Amino acid sequence: AFFFRVISSPGPALLPDGEPEDSGDEEAPSDSSEVAPVTLRWSRITCSLSDKHGKTVRFLLTNVSGEAKPGRLLAIMGPSGSGKTTLLNVLVGQLAASPRLHLSGHMDVNGKPRSHGYKIAYVRQEDLFFSQLTVRETLSIAAELQLPEIASVQKREMYVNELLLRLGLINCADSIIGDAKVRGISGGEKKRLSLACELIASPSVIFADEPTTGLDAFQAEKVMETHELLARDGHTVICSIHQPRSSVYKKFDDIVLLSEGAVVYMGPARDEPLKYFEKFGYDCPDHMNPAEFLADLISIDYSSAESIRSSQTRIDKLVAEFSEILPSVECLSPITTWKSCKIPAKVGGKSLTKKQGGWWRQYYHMIHSNIRSSRRLTKHPEVAAINTAMAALTKTVSVFPKERVIVDRERSKGSYALGPYLISKLLAEIPIGAAFPLMFGTILYPMAHLHPSLSRFTKFCGIITMEAFAASAMGLTVGAMVSTTEAAMAVGPSLMTVFIVFGGYYVNAENTPVVFRWIPRISLIRWAFQGLCINEFTGLKFECQNSFDIQTGEQALERFSFGGSRIGDTITAQGRILMFWYWTTYLLLKKNQPKYQELKPPQL
Ligand SMILES: Nc1ncnc2c1ncn2[C@@H]1O[C@H](COP(=O)(O)OP(=O)(O)OP(=O)(O)O)[C@@H](O)[C@H]1O
Fold it and tell me: What is the membrane topology noted in the UniProt record heading this document (predicted)?
């Protein structure tokens, strides 16, 4: 996937290879704080949706015109489904192609076709990062990939530090990003990190799709403050936003109000739109958030048939009124993509984005970040426990149902009995069954920086090997229970998932509901996880910042409800589970042994 991505498309934030000197008529600035000023104009953009017979069924955008200027923050506002994201995608040139969508209109960049281009950044709604990397590492990797011309590591670090300071990320620079499971930086910080990653190559135009979605009021304000500062630095900033609080609304310089894909107002923000709507008798009450007033004014009220009709009439009237006074935004160039942007951003008079790093450079950094990321991830003994068990289980369930057919045939011939077959199978599989966990342990242990002592390493390998045998025995039971490999492949991992959930990491003994308390006792994941945790945490001391932080490994074990137990206990429990699955396999195979129709003498 990475290979495909590298050869197929550089993504919106990266400049394609280009001739840096081809700067058109515009001079790119020579200082890092300066950006090439860009004015965007779009006119008569219409986007329609047709059915499979080619008949237009709906307009997503109707005759939308507008303008975004450098040094100003433009907000595209409107109710849900009004076409904000569609318009933003059209402006960025990234409206997903579909045979049912028809797009027309014009767009200029500084009075020229936009393919003549400038560097742009598109900050999407979802924040996608390697969750185990820190903020600084994420930005450093982005800088190394996008700014290969800054050869000096020191200079690149300075540049990253500058960005961290500028976006208010310096305090969390060395925190991991985190995800739903491992707490990392806040939602607002993630949004600002997304923005920072896009800003590395000093884009002239910044598009942001709903940058405040999912944030609390304070974080939303901080994020919008950052956008406002970027506009003040000379960037052209365009963001879509649903319904901002009033302090956020005050930050906008210009506003486009969309309702059902049509423009209801476009022009200066703050009091101007309120004055404009006053002319039609719609007064914003004192102390009401203007954004809320505007949103109510241009939304369909679905509470009753009458309210739908009256709100629709009001919106149609406002759209018609605005189209009559629409400032003439005329562009000559049909909509194209930004792909052939050729003007590189510059820092200190030097081009920063002549080229992306070559393949090898990108490959090296991606591998590096993946290793860094997986190192931290694999520190969780849970990952080692799940990986070992799943590998052993799938290996067995994919093979055993086929083998069973042969066993049944031989048994029916009386070649061998079930008991000796199972015992010989167990003994014969010891070397192969142990090979994978030992290999896995040998690679993972030093990579994950686990406790560097030979005795702990030996115990680590012992625990995962025992677990692999238990998982394999469980695979035999599943294979004996169902008749096909496909069914075994469906049942085995599903059953294992239950054991993973009750494995002690997601749900531990103290918070397991009483009715499910038996599951962790028979979960091979839980015993392996417990053994690995005891092996790793016993005797550890942690650096603490607060008095309530966990200080010792023993306290960490208490937190998992593993206090007071020993590795020996977990190995014994695994042994019991292994015997349980073997015994169940024996009983199932015995019960399911092939039965043949008896040949009875004909009745006279
Ligand atoms: N490719 C598509 N095919 C069909 N319908 C689409 C397509 N893209 C957008 N739409 C429809 O167009 C309308 C506008 O969508 P858009 O995502 O632009 O709205 P929005 O104002 O950004 O909404 P929200 O605030 O909820 O994100 C929606 O009704 C959506 O379902």
Answer: Multi-pass membrane protein
pLDDT, averaged across the chain: 79
* Res 332 pLDDT > 70: no
On whether both 1 and 147 belong to a single domain, the answer is: yes
How far is it, in rounded angstroms, from Cα 375 to Cα 444?
A: 8
Query: What ipTM did this prediction achieve?
Result: 0.95
Predicted confidence (pLDDT) at residue 185 exceeds the cutoff of 80: yes
Site of tokens 């409800």: 561
Confidence band of 365 (pLDDT split at 50, 70, 90):
low
230 C-alpha vs ligand 1 centroid, how far in Å?
28
Higher model confidence: residue 398 or residue 331? Answer: 398
Dihedral sign of CA atoms 62, 65, 70, 71 in order: negative
Q: Say if 340 falls within a structural domain.
A: yes
Residues with CB under 6 A from ligand 1: 49, 60, 78, 80-86, 98, 101, 242
Residue type, 377: L
- Residue 86 CA: nearest ligand 1 atom is 18
Q: Tell which atom from ligand 1 comes closest to the C-alpha of 87.
A: 18
DSSP lists the bridge partners of residue 268 as 254
Q: Which domain, by its residues, includes 171?
A: 1-10+129-200+355-375
Residues 6+ apart with CB under 8 A from 349: 30, 31
Are both 226 and 282 inside the same structural domain? yes
Question: What DSSP assignment string belongs to 493-525?
Answer: HHHHHHHHHTSSSSS-GGGS-GGGTHHHHH-HH
pLDDT at 282 over 80: yes
Which of the two residues, 190 and 352, has the higher pLDDT score? 190
Residue nearest to atom 4 of ligand 1 (CA): 49
List Cβ neighbours of 160 (8 Å cut-off, separation of 6 or more).
136, 139, 140, 143
The two beta strands, 236-241 and 73-77, are: parallel
- Our mutation pick for probing the ligand 1 site, out of 47, 86, 259, 298, counting the most ligand atoms within 8 A of Cβ, is 86
Residue 598 falls inside a structural domain: no
CB of 553 closer than 8 Å to CB of 450:
no
Number of domains in the chain: 3
Share of residues in the chain with pLDDT > 90 (%): 17
State the pLDDT at residue 56: 77
Instruction: Please state the atom number of ligand 1 nearest to the C-alpha of residue 98.
Output: 1
Give the residue, by CA position, lying nearest to ligand 1 atom 31: 81
